[in-house]
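Morning!

This is the sequence you dropped in the shared folder:
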Amino acid sequence: MLNYLKLYRINKVLFFLLLTFLVTSCKQPSYQPTFAVCGKLPEYPAVAKAGYEYMELIVGDFLVPDHSDADFLKNLELMKRLDAKIISCMQFIPANLKMTGPESRHDDILVWAETTFRRAQIAGIPYIVLGSGDSRWVPDGFDMHVATQQIIDLCRQMAPLAQQHDVILLVEPLAKKYSNFIHTLAEGADIVKAVNHPNVQLLCDIHHMLLEDDPAGEIIKYGEYIRHCHIAEKDYRTAPGTMGDNFKPYFKALKQINYQGSISVEIDYIDGKYQWDDFNKQLVSALRYMKQCL
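The structure's back. Tokens below.
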């Protein structure tokens, strides 16, 4: 009788340990980022066929804030015809609309932003990327502290517009070769924290982080602000897996913050063509390589 009682108690303990493990496992969301490709809308069928969930488009190409609603609706119709899923639009503000310096054009930018956000909402696009290196380039001799405040003030004015249209504006740190201002995740996070609005968050671009030697640990440090991610190899923005750049520390950091957003492969598009040797083939190999790294 004592042996049966002892066995019952042991089995009871094992049962509750197993139950605790199962409950704890169910409560922890799995690390499942989606993948996208930055490019042109007509390429969506090839992107989807290669296994990507989304595309990321250019504001001026798709949302066309400087064109009529009729022109935008043509793009929207193509999106629907292709059944395309668009995660984000980048290259937000054109070079002639300056964010910083004595010739900043914040009033014009706000008009541009409102049109952009409104059309993004219609198309169901959740993110707009604030990279725009030429627009935010600080003129020689201009006070960097003043330029910083200009960016913060502008984002504070754009934030309610983004919220109104259910869009999140993402501050993107850029390497020095692309901009002379906001280069690291820490600097981008400083802008986000100063704006202090839920519709202004942070983008993590692993290509720029590699160029700036911005360590993967910064992703963990500022993970609470990161909503989207770009990726390309360090030299020449080649496709992941081309030169064999080691993305594992960055993916490990994203996993540590349980990143649930999308990772967009960013490709240079020059003179009407993608700067990859074989676009369709490298779409497949890049995705395979990234998943192997994960």
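Headline: The chain has one domain: 32-293.

More detail when I'm at my desk.
O.
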